[in-house]
Amino acid sequence: MVLESLLNPLKAEKRPWEMFFLGFVYSSIAILLSLWIFKDQTSLVMVFLTVMACVPIVYNTMKLEESKDLVISKERLLLKEHNKAIMFLMFLFFGITLSFVVWYVFLPSATLNIVFDKQISTIQSINNQVSGNAYQQFSTFSKILFNNIKVLSFAVLFAFVYGAGAIFILTWNASVIGTAIGSFIRSNLSQYAGLLGFEKFSSYFNVVSIGLLRYILHGIPEILAYFYGGLAGGIISVAIIKKHYKDEKFSHILFDISELLIISISFLLVAAFIEVYITPILF
User: What is the Cα–Cα distance from 211 to 48, expressed in whole angstroms?
Assistant: First the structure.
């Protein structure tokens, strides 16, 4: 791919912020192509086109991280190296998410329902109303945690089977999160439609900030969990493809994978706690 050829995992680890712009451009092009060619199925096609654009850089990242397992013996140093990959992949995710937010906020209403049809349906079906009752809160916490673990399992499975398959789960989540944030911003901006001048300008940025913060609080640890899980699945996938299971260091690879999965589950626990017990208080 033209844009992907400008970056590789080694370059991305040195300048992770560049992945943000790459993600924004990839998803924006995907939305435009989907509207142009597959208008009635835009909400799904744009996700697949974004995934197709991201696969080369993500798969090369999996190969790079797996090779590190064979040459780095100290687990702390290895985890530090993995974190470099997680960092630039998170920037990629943020770029994709922000792109969906921007398109949701500025697209005409008629086009909006076509572009984000499946995402809007998903949000409506999983929208949880958190009660103040402690038992119901714990029940909601358990439900959210179980659902997130299920998504994590799919991320690991997709990464294992398809190498870079976890990027599909993450891109879909980016589209849903972007839709949720965009919907929050768009609905609240309507309240300030009658305001003029600086006051309107100030209100606009206040709504945008609250919209982003509301979902970022629990969204960041949640997405980090999926990236760690996807990285674990990708590493074992590459190890099997390269037949490194015959290598004496394969046990070290398995230990590294188990550590990544433990980190993933820990992040999911934090994310579910924030979503159920903290976010409703703040917003």
Answer: 26
How many domains does the chain divide into? 1
Distance from the first to the final alpha carbon of the chain: 42
- The residue count of the chain comes to 283
> How far apart (Å, rounded) are the C-alpha atoms in residues 44 and 91?
22
Torsion sign across C-alpha atoms 106, 204, 280, 270: positive
Measured distance CA(173)–CA(19) in Å, rounded: 18
Task: Kindly report whether the global pTM for this prediction surpasses the value 0.70.
Answer: yes
Q: How far is CA 43 from CA 40, 118, 205, 250, in A?
A: 8, 6, 27, 41
Query: 58 near 226, Cβ under 8 Å?
Result: no
Residue 131, number of CB atoms within 10 A of its CB: 12
Q: Could you identify the residue written with the tokens 């996807």? A: 230
Q: Residue 231 and residue 164: Cα distance in Å, rounded?
A: 9
Query: Tokens for 203?
Result: 């209100």
Using the Cα atoms of residue 50, residue 53, residue 59 and residue 64 in order, give the sign of their dihedral: negative
**Rounded to whole angstroms, how far apart are CA atoms 57 and 88?**
11
pLDDT tens profile 22-76: 999 999 999 999 999 988 889 999 999 999 998 888 888 888 888 888 888 787 8
The domain in which residue 205 lies consists of 4-282
Structure tokens at 219: 């969204």
